Amino acid sequence: MKRFATTFFLAISILLGVQIAAAQEWSQPWARERIAKSPRHSEWVTVKHDGRNVETLLVYPESKQKRPVVLVIHEIFGLSDWAQELADEVAAAGYIAVAPDLLSGMGPNGGRTKDFPAGAVTEAVSKLNPAQVTADLNAAADYALKLPAASGKLFVAGFCWGGGQTFRFATNRGDLSAAFVFYGPPPEKDAMSRIKAPVYGFYAGNDARIDATIPDTIANMKAAGKTYEPVTYEGAGHGFMRAGETPDDTNPANKKARDKAWTRWKSLMAM
C-alpha cells in the first residue's frame, strides 16, 4: 500500500510539474490580467493564404488619424499571453499591432499555440518551415496594411526566435520602414544584400550566445552598405523585454533595459 501511495503521489507530482512547465511556456496570468483591463480594441482575425489559416491578433490604438502597422513576431514560446500583451502595448504607443500566431493549424486538431500539450510549443516553433513563416508574415502584414485605419507604413519587431525571424524578414520584404531585432540572431551574410530597411538591434549584456554574433553582423551589414545599429543593455538577460515586466523577476537590470529599449523603440518609430 505504501509503495502504491508513493508511486501515486510521484505520478501526481510529475503531472503537476508538467502542467507548471506548460504554464511557464506560453501562459502568463499577469499579462492576461493586463490585457483584460486594456481600453483598446482588439480582435482575432483569420488571415488566409495558400491554403493556410493564420489566426492573428489585431490591436488598435486610440487615434483619430491613420496609423502605421507594427508586425509583431513572437518568441519561441509562440503567441503567448505576454506576446499578446506586448501587442497591446504597441497599440498604446499609437500603432496598429498585428501579431500572427505562427503555430496556427500546427497544434492538436488544427489548433494554435494555446492548444499544444505541455512542453511542445518551443519544439514546434523551432521546427517551423522558414518559407511558411515568411508567407504567414507577408500575409499578416498585407492584411493589416489594407485596413482602413492603416497609414501604409510598416514596421516589424520580434523577440528571441522572433528577433531572428525579424532580421530574416527584412531580407524578404522590401517595403519595411524599419526592423527592430530584440536579442535575435542575424540572417546569412549573403542575404543581407537584399535588406532595404534600417535594422535596429536590442541586445542583453548577459547573453553571450547572441552577443557573439554582433561584431560579424556589424561588419557584414557595413560591407553590404546597410544600416545596422545595435545597442546592448548591460546586466540584462536574454528575454529582458518580457522578464523586465514579470512581477517576480529578480534582476533589476531587466526592467531598466526594458524601459530604455521601449524609449528607444518608440523614438525610432516616430522618426
Topology:
Layout: H1 2-26, H2 29-37, E1 42-49, E2 52-59, E3 67-73, H3 81-92, E4 96-100, H4 121-126, H5 130-145, E5 150-159, H6 161-170, E6 178-182, E7 199-206, H7 208-211, H8 214-223, E8 228-237, H9 240-243, H10 252-269
Parallel strand pairs: 3-4, 3-5, 5-6, 6-7, 7-8
Antiparallel strand pairs: 1-2, 2-4
Helix pairs in contact: 2-3
Molecular structure report:
- The chain has 271 residues and is α/β, with parallel strands linked by helices.
- It is built from 10 helices and 8 strands.
- Strands 1-2-4-3-5-6-7-8 form an 8-stranded mixed β-sheet, with helices on both faces.
- α2 packs parallel to α3.
- The termini are far apart.
- The N terminus is likely disordered.
Major sheet: order of its strands? 1-2-4-3-5-6-7-8
What percent strand?
15-25%
The residue ranges in which pLDDT falls below 50 over 5 or more consecutive positions are: 1-24
Tell me, what's the shape?
globular
Helix percent band: 40-55%
**Strand-pairing-aware structural class:** alpha/beta
- Helical segment count: 10
SSE series:
HHEEEHEHHEHEEHHEHH
